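Consider one such protein record:
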Amino acid sequence: MPPFPLPLTDLFGDWGAYIVYLLIGIGFGAVLEMAGFGNSRKLAAQFYLTEQTVLKVMFSAIVVAMSLIFLTSALGLLDFNLVWVNPTYLWPGIVGGLIMGFGFIIGGFCPGTSLVAATTLKVDGIFFALGTFFGVFAFGETVGFFESFFYSSSYGRVTLMDVFGLPAGIVVVLVVLMALLMFWGAEQLERIFGKRDLKQEPKWRYAAAGGLAAVALAVLVIGQPTTEDRLARRAPELDRELAERQVQIEPAELLSLMHNDRLNLIMFDVRSESDYNLFHLLDAEHVELANIPVTLARLQLEPSNTVVVVMSNTETASTQAWRILTA
């Protein structure tokens, strides 16, 4: 099994994981402050085209994270299926983006950068953060009035690869090229509207751009692992678990799971449709073995207390389905 993402709670316990999260947050906040994200004038200047630090910093973070995620996935170091991708709610997202954009240009902060400013005792940041907390409270108290819209136009766990039907490597290369073009365009805007002398900019940024492009090309050349590749990598581990019967359960255990309200039980019946129609357990869902990979996207949106049970007349089909789900 790929070593990443790390099971921090299993490795360090709850409090150890909290400390790791705290250190990551401190580092993130420190980087934002050093980049000038605690200065509302610097942030608002983004919208007047005179200062493009926000675009360059945030887009750099996005493309670097994206490139390294898919590179480590290609190398078998990261299981991308375990990386949480926020479900897409199209129109609520558009409306929320417009509201945040108006708040950003009027107040000079986004919620995160207001906290950066507040920690350095900037008065405008403190008041913006207080307003954010009040907005969170007001939203929580009123969301019931527009809940149907809040959950409308749901597309689930969707990525650019899903939207355009392209391999991950091509998408990574295209996004990196788009980012580099945007960085160049941002510098030109700063030169025209902000009267910035680009000759004074550090030359190492060209090397950084080349390195980023090289990583993107490596992702394209290596490619992402298929289900068969993941199965081949995990074959010894999966064979051992099957031989030791660590993953099979008795009927009594399934009965206990069905009556455990603290678990989200999902049962897949991979028998033929005729056998399923003759008899099946209550709430068991019929899924053809060939369609098991299709269910993965839905399972990735299930809560962490989800238990998936695969059943069949013999262990052959259910074992194959388990292998696909586990890979």
Summary: The mean pLDDT is 90. The chain has two domains: 8-222, 227-326.
